[in-house]
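Researcher: Please translate sequence to C-alpha cells.
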Amino acid sequence: MTANSRFRRTFRKIYRKEEPALKSAPVPAGIIAEFNPFHRGHAALIQAARESGATHVAVVMSGDFVQRGAPALLSKWSRTEMALRCGADAVFELPLPWAMAGAERFALGGVFLLAQLGCRRICFGSECGDVKALQETASLLLSPAFSAQLKQELSRGTGFASAREAAVHSLAGPQAAALLQTPNNTLAIEYLKAAQLLSMELEPFTITRFGADHHDSTPRAGFASATALREWIQKGEGWEPFVPSEAAEIIKREIALGACPADPARMERALLFRLRSMTLAEFASLPDISEGLENRLFAASRKACTLDEWFSLVKTKRYSMARLRRILFSALLGLTASDAQGLPPYLRLLGLRDSGVLFPRQAKETGKIPVLSHSSDLLHLDKRGRIMVELEGKGSDLHALFLPRPVPCGLNLSHGMVRVRS
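Model: Translation complete:
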C-alpha cells in the first residue's frame, strides 16, 4: 500500500467520523392537517415552515373521515401523495377516533403523534398570527379559574362554545374571547393547550391566514377555502386555479378513476337504516353524547325519512351540526366513546419522500409507540392497537362506498405506502 493510499484511507475514516459533527442538527417540524383537499394555502404553510428554519416537515393527517363529520373528498392515499408532491417529507395518519372528533381531541391526538416523531416545532395557520396571544389563551383554558367560570356559564343553559367564549371574556377581556370566534385561532389554541397538557416541548410557529375565510364560498387574493373547493369539485367546475398543479393532477386522475368525490348522499338510506336499528343503549355509547342526547337521537331515528329530517329533529343551539354529523358517522362505523379515550396507540406511516426517513427512524428510537409502515408490523400491536386498525379498516371500506365507483374491501391494509422520490 502506497503512502498516498494510506493517507486517503485515513482521511476517509476521519471524515466519516467527523461528518455528523460538521452537519448542522436537523430541525424537524410538524403540521396537523386534513388536506380535504390540498390547496394553495396548505402549500404556503409548508413553505413557510421551511423558511422558518425547519429542515424536515412531517404531517399528521386525518384518514378517510374528517373532523367536521364527513368522509374525506379523496382517499387518504391520494391526499398523502398530494402532500408529498407539494413539499411534505412524510405523512402519518391521525387515527379515526381523533380525526373525527371535536377540536380538543383532534388536537390532543395530533400533538401527541408529532411529539413521538421527534418534531421540535409545530406549524399552523391562524387568523391573528400572534403566538403570544394564542399561548396565553391556551394557558387560561387550563386554569382552575376558567373551569369554575365555564361551569357557571354552562349552568345558564348556554351551548359549550358560547359558554367558553363568555368565560374567557369574563377572565381575560374581549380580545382574548374574540380569538375563539374564528376556527383557525380556536384550533391553534387547542394545539398549544394540548402541548402544555402533555408537557410536550414543541415550539409554535404560525402564519397569518390570508385569502378566503374558512367557510367563504368565493375566493380572495387568489386563495379559496376548502369548503368552496369541495363544492366546486362536486360540481366539476372552477376549482383548479386554487390548487397547486401537482395536487390538481392527482385530483383529476382520481375523478377519472371514479375515486373522487366522495359523497355521503350515496349512502343516505344505509345511514338511516343503521340509525333505525340502534338501541337507546347503543346511542348512549357513542362519542360526544351527554345531557340525555341519546334520547333525542333515538326518537328522531324512529321518525326521520331523510337525513335532513333527522338533523332538523335533533338540532338545537346546544349541538353543532359538526357534532351531530360526527355522531352519525360514529354510529355507522360502530365507534364508541371508549374507543376515543386516551392517546393514539401507534404511528401509521402513509407515505414519505426519501428525506422523510428521519421521522420513522426517530419514532422507532424513542420506542414509546410502535410505527406501522408494513402490514407485518400489525403482529407487534397490543389488543387496543389491533382494535384501532380494525376500526380504520371499517372506515376505509365505508369510505369506498361513498365514491362514484366503489372499490373492494381491504384497501386499508393492501394499499402500499406512498413513495415519492426527492
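Researcher: Any highlights?
Model: The chain is about 50% helix and 10% strand.
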